[in-house]
Amino acid sequence: MSLFSRLQAELAQFQADGVYKRLLYLDGPQGPRARMEGFGEVIVLSSNNYLGLCNELEVVEAGKRALDRFGAGTASVRFICGTFTVHRDLEAACARLVGTGASLSFVSCWNANEAVPGTLLGEDDIIISDQLNHASIIDGIRLAKAITKCQTGVYRHGDLADLTEKLSLAKDRRVRMVITDGVFSMEGAIARLPEIADICRKHDAVLVVDDSHATGVLGRTGRGTAEHFGMLGEVDIITSTLGKALGGAAGGFVASTPAVCDYLTQRARPQLFSNALPPTVAASALASVEYLERHPERVEQLRQNARYFREQLLARGFKPLPGETPIIPVILGETAKAIEMSRQLLTEGVFVTGFGFPVVPQGQARIRCQISAAHRRDDLDEALRAIEKVGQRLGVV
Ligand SMILES: Cc1ncc(COP(=O)(O)O)c(C=O)c1O
Predict the structure, then answer these.
(1) Which tens digits make up the pLDDT trace of 22-50?
(2) pLDDT digits (tens, 9 = 90+) for 259-279
(3) What is the Cα–Cα distance from 245 to 52, expressed in whole angstroms?
(4) Helices assigned H by DSSP within the chain
(5) What's this model's pTM, rounded to 2 decimal places?
(6) Options 46, 136, 185, 284, the catalytic residue
(7) Element (H, E) at 210
(8) Which of 79, 152, 175, 360 has the fewest CB atoms within 10 Å, measured from its CB?
(9) Distances, alpha carbon 190 to alpha carbons 40, 209, 229, 284, in Å
């Protein structure tokens, strides 16, 4: 069978299995409500626009000004000719935000996660990863293993006894690196950073935290998982995205010591062989960080909205996974039920994604509601009414 006919057959099978993803098109800005082609205005409970910065005026204006000042593209990789002053300003702002000595931007956090292990480790080293870490971490580790021949290990999700055991068995390694999500995106659970950091200290391990769902979200002023636990400055390496809470733009960064960032500048392949963030995007990202620094009340609003939504779901008989983050999964059981609930909610004007096996374990299919600081009370109430109506129709409450 040729490649093309095999792909066609597999696509048909995805459809038959009910796992085929249909792209939904927005015909306007991302926001608490958005215009979706074919569905009109919908309440969005399925975006990482946690602080509502995607369409914040000063963030958008910063991108427009940068277009006039710097032009559209970078025209090469940054060590050749693609570094603009706005990249330097953005990197200083990201480091300030997350409490490190330096940061280095990448075109995505995916790239940042690919760069860290593959560049910093060697064949005498080991990286140990939480089982539920994001796909970009998993692929970054696979790549590191292929490139550097480093050892790799996985500890059961959140099982710190397992982490301790894996570290104890790695005493002979030159470097032990432990990597965890700050917030796990399918659960909304927060990593137990104080204990993980303590274990890393005891085993002389380097701690890396991917704070993509925590930057702008956790901590009183949105500085992430470290601020949440009163541990600013205690994480060795932080990776994060500029495309979620700081969603005025896109991109990612690694934040750490100046030496780590300098080394990545010298050696990280996604830096050396790929163009930098377009200056317009870097300028909007910088404006997002500055906006967050001036508006910590947005973070508090996000927290209040998430708390309200969680309480209201409970009051209506749903069983959201317990937690403190704006990621609120409601477990429904079978994949087909989650997909159907998501489909029916969209026809009721609420955009929320259903996730099933293999993205989440068998029997734990769910809809995942994501709350934004930009949601008004009436957005949340209207969404809750629709969730209750569809939930009753499907017999899940
Ligand atoms: C934990 C985590 N890390 C990294 C990424 C990738 O971020 P980006 O979109 O900047 O590549 C995501 C995005 O889904 C994520 O959830």
Answers:
(1) 899 999 999 999 999 999 999 999 999 99
(2) 999 999 999 999 999 999 999
(3) 7
(4) 3-16, 57-70, 85-98, 109-120, 135-148, 160-168, 193-202, 225-228, 258-267, 269-272, 279-294, 296-315, 335-347, 377-393
(5) 0.97
(6) 185
(7) strand 205-210
(8) 79
(9) 35, 11, 10, 28
